[in-house]
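Appendix B. Extra example for self-study. Work through it before the problem class; the solution is given directly after the inputs so you can check yourself.
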Amino acid sequence: MRHIISILMENEPGALSRVIGLFSQRGYNIESLSVAPTEDQTLSRLTLATFGPDKVIEQITKQLNKLVDVVKVMDLSEGSHIERELMLIKIKAQGEHREEVKRCADIFRGQVVDVTHSIYTVQLTGTSQKLDAFLDAVGRTNVLEVVRSGVSSIARGDRVLAV
Amino acid sequence: MTKLSGAEMVIRSLQEEGVEYLFGYPGGSVLHIYDAIFQQNKVQHILVRHEQAATHAADGYARATGKPGVCLVTSGPGATNTITGIATAYMDSIPLIVISGQVPSDVIGEDAFQETDMIGCSRPVVKHSFLIKHPTEIPMAFKKAFHIATTGRPGPVVIDIPKDMTAPSEQFEYKYPATVRMRSYNPTVRGHAGQIKRAADLLMKAKRPVIYAGGGIIQGNAWEPLRELARLTGYPVTNTLMGLGAFPGSDHQFIGMLGMHGTYEANMAMHHADVIIGLGARFDDRVTNDTGKFCPQAKIIHVDIDPSSISKTIETDIPIVGPVDTVIADLLGVIAEKHLKPDAKAVEAWWKQIDEWRQHHGLRFDEDECEQIKPQRVIRALYEVTQGKAYVTSDVGQHQMFAAQHYAFDDPRKWINSGGLGTMGFGLPAAMGVQFAHPGAPVACVTGEGSIQMCIQELSTCLQYQLPIKIVNINNQALGMVRQWQDMQYGGRHSESYMQSLPDFVKLAEAYGHIGIKVTDRKDLEPALKDAFGKYKDRLVFLDIYVDRTEHVYPMQIKGGSMRDMWLSKTERT
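Solution. Structure tokens for the complete assembly:
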């Protein structure tokens, strides 16, 4: 099953490599990863999408907690949560197809953020599934380039991941 | 406030931590530190002959004392040579501080001479590591390093210090921190009271209980509470390879080591148990055999300081995270408070069964028809001659298993071996660390002609510091454990397991300034050992003992089976 794990860690050089190293060393999967400092500059927040049986996910959270640079770990998938990913996508946009791409972007609430005579660059946010769906909708053969941020996620309601 | 250079801060920090010995090897990046060592006499530096040996010696010191072992090496190859030693300590949860030199900070990343990314190289095998980026960081980094290495589940910590951080020309204010607080590192100090109550109830209702105790009992200084629990309940106790000595080996309640080469009675008792309490042991693959067939009737209580050890391989019914000493003490408290009593009748019947199993095999070996010395006999003779009081280090292989099976360790910290990583070459340098820790005590290094050659250069260190270690070289002219597996699983095809062109170990020992004794005849075994520990008490003695080349270690669990599936001899299985 897919899990989204959020990690608060010391904003220190080498901290990220310890997290990444743990995953490769123990054979855990990483589907996506995003990391940046938080409002408290001494802390970084890392959001990691992974998949595996419950037993493996339990080990992942335990092993993450063991890392000295890791302050807190939360498996967001254990409760209700909001999940967003940002995608920038360059799409061929010529002739009739040009309108179709624009319509599609509108339907998905994307924005065209750059235009040439033959290309639209679209910005889109949403769950990873929504981004996948957009790629299917515009037709993958028309896609020239894609960059995705990896998942960012936050729990709904009272659950807070903070020090 | 005192002003010190970074190099002086390193040494002062070690002094503050009460470090007696620093095992190391100099080189370009650490010369400032070596100059600071020269100008003081509180921390004694021990010059090894290879950096790997520095880590094993510091590790041996740590295992024998419970205090952290410390080593100092230079950058590049000096640092990479410590990796095996760090990994060894990591797998066995040994507190170790490795200080490595690094190239000056302005050339890091430029492939400078003797540059290696030590933080990166060591990352998978350390508990934590520090790269010093300013000399003023040194005291706090050391304070944290010692704190992290010795608390929670102990482990190795690397401190990587670029050369410019230790320059004698630059001095800074120095104050060693009295305390350390880290928001991201707070090991559990007490077990969960509710879980302990549940555990007490389950444990005291058991009809076929086993206390399964591991290295955590020793690292966590919990042998007294363990012994109290065993005495109070009357339950059988088995120790893991790492836990030998946690419970007295000569006690009737001790049913021997368990696992791959565990005793018949220990493995049978585990398999048939209805309640198993794992204390500071991690249900590793050398214990459990096939995890799917592990102890089918048992409810499992697992006490461990490391939450990730719990339910990692075997599902636990009652997990308790906490230091094993306080958890057992709390458990005893609950038992006393609730007046819980063991089921005496059931336990008596259980012991009857266990004693039958004990009679069935009992680590027998057949030496009557063999003219040669049996390796098991060597260990038994060593036990007799040292009256079971020696510190015994070992390397890895058959000799290690024979030592574990046949030397009954009554005290903790006496059996020192690389159980987790299985590092050949560990024994001799570890024995050096033990001998430094306990200068007057008998120290034996049980080894084989394969393992000993992996760190043989340390014979030179032993001469320099007059370490009277007794090397018991169980010489079967083969990589015995490899050959045993080849005999059992590869149709007897001895691929590269024969040790050809062995040196004359007696001459070798003599060349290093020690005493060498070759033993080939059974009648010479005991006298040679007596000489080593008597007449030559103050000298290093290398006993090169030729043994039966064909011997295997039994019992041996059958791969893919349960704990009770064992070979008991070359022809007999359960």
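Self-check: Residues 344-360 of chain B form the longest helix (17 residues). If your reasoning did not lead you there, revisit section 3.
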